Input
Amino acid sequence: MNLADLYIIIFQHKKIRLVLTKTRAVVLKEVKFREQSKICSLYTRDFGRISVILKGGRNLKSRLSGLFCTGSLLEVVLYNRSNRDLQLVSEARIIRSPMTAEPSMERFSAIYRLIEILKISTGNEEKNIRLFNALERTLEKLCAPCRNADAAVAWFMLKLISESGFEPSIEQCVTTGKSILPMLQEGSADDLCLTYDPGGVSLPVPAAQKGPPGQRLPVQVYLLMRTLNRLDIRSIDEIDIPADNSRLLCDILQNYCSLHNNYNPSSKNRRIISRILYE
Output
């Protein structure tokens, strides 16, 4: 059943049609507005990406105070008008919050990366329930103690890439059409390449030949990508994943996704967080 419960309120004198709607949403961004209000960018299950205003939402006495924090998963009730840029939030409750589990820089870094890639990969009012469901499952994992946070983000990015229509070919080489795994088992390749066009994994191209543009994909990282593509995210902590491999896979997939979205990601921000975490 659709989560949205619709109630129509018609103002006869002003001839305005408002719809009071309940839906689930993830907070992508929050900005202070005037003295006590806040404007937030949300990715919602039923309306895609929208902007909302929380009137008085920064007042400690408000029912909305402290709820709309970046990375939180909420159930929100809002007045929805299709011809309005800002929707008005009536009430909300927290379903998942990054702050509910023990503080962890690894989890916070993973959530930051998740939110950033979602912001640049989704447009306004592009509803995609399958993508939202994948996002919700990922946040459920990241808002609890998680030993494979980067792998969870990589899992989500594979779903995002697939839903965006540029899913890479993982099982067959995009240049030769041959199955990749048997050739790796034979020891025919030490490294692979994730190509942009056509999108997919490619076996090494001889130096004398010019292959399609792409980025280096180490075999172990490829095997992790292949595993995550087949895995239920709820089982992600049951497998042993080297942290370096999951971080590198996140970088590779983010570059792949960013190129297809014609966006240059904020590598400076990613370098700062990596330096804090791993140096």
User: Anything to note?
Assistant: The domain at 1-97 is CATH 2.40.50.140 (OB fold (Dihydrolipoamide Acetyltransferase, E2P)). DSSP finds seven helices and nine strands in the chain.
